[in-house]
Every structure is written in C-alpha cells, then in structure tokens.
C-alpha cells in the first residue's frame, strides 16, 4: 500500500477541499477500514474550519470521528478481526475512502444492519453510556434530564436511560417540531429551556429535583440546571453548544451538594477509550443488535458534497444524523 492514494475531504488553504490524499497505513494495533458511510458530528465543524479538536486539526486534516465499513488491512499486532469484517468505529479521518482506528475502538456491525445505520451509532453510544453510567453513576429508579436532547447523542442518551431503568426521562429542545419528537426516542416528558420557569417544571416532574442531568448546552443553562437538580444531584457536562464560559452560582452548588463533572474525549488515552467501548458492549450489546437503541437519519450526502453536509449541520435544522458516502 506504500504510496497509495484515496479520495478524501480535507482541510485546505480555503476551507474544506476534495481530492487525493495519501491512504493511511495501519499501525501495529490498528485496522484499516474501507469506509462505506461516515457520520457527521459537531466537532467536525471546528476541524473543517482549521481549528484543533484534541490531537486533530490543521492543514491537511481529514475530519470525521465515526464511520462504518469493511476491514481492508490489519496491523501486525491486531487480533480478533479479519479482512472483510464489517465494522462500525470511532476514530479519525472518516471523510475518506479509507480510515484507520485502534482495533479495540471497532465493534462488529450487527446482522442485518446497513452501513448507514451502523455509522450513526458509535459516538452516541460511547458518549452517553460513559456520561450516564461511568460519570453520572446512574442507577435504576433515577430521574434523568438530557439538555440538548434532539441531537443524535441526546436522543441516544434518552434511550439508554430508559433501557437502564430510569424512573423519569426528560429531554429538552427549544425547537417545537423537534421537541415534539423526543417522546418517540425515550423521553417521558419534553421541555423548552427558552421558557424561564423550566427548572420549576423539571422539579415538578421529578418530585423536587432531578437526580442526573446530562448537559450538552452549558453556557446560560449552567445555573438553571443546578436549580433543576435534586439535593445531591449530579450534572455531567458533555457539551458546550451554548457557550464554554458563564457565571457559576457557587453557593447554589454547595447548598445542593451537587457533583458537577466535566467530560471530553479530547484528553482521554487510548486505554480509556477502549474501556468505554468495552462498557458499551458489556451493557448495551443486546439492545443494539435488536434495534432498540437507534437513531434517525436526517439526510445523506456524497463525499464531494462534504462542505454542503457541514453547512446543513451548521444551520441546525436537522433531526438525527447526517451521513457522508465516500
């Protein structure tokens, strides 16, 4: 494969460009995947603009954090996979005909799943299982609030919470049409955080306060989230779509004895990510395979339309996952 090239969307001088780039070669513990479908994520917007996202970023970077396809080659130390296996992966460089990932970041595509369906799953499963279980300490009988629930990750979080026995699941969206769909994807109730009294609404729905909040918005919702939380509630900061800085009510935080936990994949080691993937398979595999945990597909684009796909995401009018087909 030395010297081989492939088609990819990459960061050029004037933004995202489509063209030939070197085909990656798998390192000893990596697999090379022939990408059939890649799924878009919010972080791709920053990477495509030239910004850094963890170790990714800068001129020549191929965006794309999750994808599905077939194993095309194995690193020298890889076990458990063979060429031709169908896999769904988290990793990097998915906006391309080929991408590499650590062999323990890949999961087998369940029988009967198309590549499109499989590509929607890896990051949503990993992010929300880790937020709810590993960081949020969710137990059956807890009440759970997902802030920013109409995203793919948010929709998955609602479903995982229901599967794990949440007593009450509440999702939020400020868009009327998307909020109306939240109960189709695991929510018992849907709220609008543009309404000033939404913390009171949450407290009424949860007998005085919600046990666990998964916050994808942050910014202006940080203090209202603490108002909505139960005494000794937990808040897991997963995303900062509403802003990365804000005033923090330290007294309210202390009075309620809230555990406020920040998470990101950007500073995780490969060993930590492998453990997250293993946790998904341990706790969720049967309901992944039978389709209980699923995400809607909003729209698909060809690789040559990667820029248009990202603009569609930036417009924030989609519901579900946006896909690319290399």
Report on this structure.
The structure is a single chain. This protein has 326 residues and is of the alpha/beta class. It has 2 domains: 5-121 and 295-325, Quinone Oxidoreductase, Chain A, domain 1, CATH 3.90.180.10; 124-262, NAD(P)-binding Rossmann-like Domain (Rossmann fold). Helix content is 29%, strand content 28%. It has 10 helices and 15 strands. It has helices at 42-48, 115-119, 122-135, 152-163, 176-181, 198-205, 222-228, 250-255, 270-289, 306-314, and strands at 5-12, 15-22, 30-39, 66-74, 86-90, 98-102, 106-108, 143-147, 168-172, 189-191, 210-215, 229-237, 259-262, 297-302, 321-325. The strands form 3 sheets. Strands 3, 4, 5, 6, 7, 14 and 15 form a 7-stranded mixed beta sheet that branches. It has a 6-stranded parallel beta sheet with strand order 10-9-8-11-12-13, with helices on both faces. A two-stranded antiparallel ribbon has the order 1-2. A hairpin with a 2-residue loop joins β1 and β2. The longest helix has 20 residues, at 270-289. The chain is globular, with a radius of gyration of 20 Å. GO terms for molecular function: NADPH binding; quinone reductase (NADPH) activity. Its EC number is 1.6.5.5. InterPro entries: ADH-like_C (IPR013149), ADH-like_N (IPR013154), ER (IPR020843), GroES-like_sf (IPR011032), NAD(P)-bd_dom_sf (IPR036291).
């Amino acid at each position: 494969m030395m010297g081989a090239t492939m088609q990819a969307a990459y960061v050029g001088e004037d933004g995202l460009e489509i063209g030939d780039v070197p085909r990656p070669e798998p390192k000893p513990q990596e697999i090379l995947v022939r990408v059939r479908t890649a799924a878009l994520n919010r972080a791709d917007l920053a990477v495509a603009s030239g910004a850094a996202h963890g170790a990714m970023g800068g001129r020549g970077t191929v965006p794309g954090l999750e994808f599905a396809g077939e194993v095309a080659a194995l690193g020298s130390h890889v076990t458990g996979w063979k060429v031709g296996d169908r896999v769904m992966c988290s990793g990097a460089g998915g906006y391309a005909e080929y991408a590499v990932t650590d062999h323990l970041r890949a999961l087998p595509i369940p029988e009967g799943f198309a590549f499109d369906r499989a590509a929607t799953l890896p990051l949503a499963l990993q992010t929300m299982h880790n937020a709810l279980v590993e960081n949020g300490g969710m137990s059956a009988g807890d009440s759970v609030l997902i802030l920013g629930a109409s995203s793919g990750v948010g929709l998955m979080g609602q479903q995982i919470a229901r599967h794990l026995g949440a007593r009450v699941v509440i999702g939020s969206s400020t868009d009327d049409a998307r909020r109306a769909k939240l109960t189709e994807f695991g929510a018992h109730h849907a709220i609008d955080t543009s309404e000033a009294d939404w913390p009171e609404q949450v407290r009424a729905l949860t007998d005085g306060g919600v046990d666990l909040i998964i916050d994808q918005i942050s910014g202006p919702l940080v203090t209202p989230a603490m108002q909505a939380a139960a005494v000794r509630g937990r808040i897991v900061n997963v995303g900062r779509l509403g802003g990365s800085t804000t005033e923090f009510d330290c007294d309210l935080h202390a009075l309620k004895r809230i555990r406020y936990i920040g998470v990101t994949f950007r500073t995780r080691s490969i060993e930590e990510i492998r453990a997250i993937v293993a946790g998904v398979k341990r706790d969720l595999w049967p309901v992944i395979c039978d389709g209980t945990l699923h995400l809607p597909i909003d729209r698909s684009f060809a690789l040559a339309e990667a820029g248009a796909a990202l603009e569609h995401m930036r417009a924030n009018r989609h519901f579900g996952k946006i896909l690319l087909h290399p």
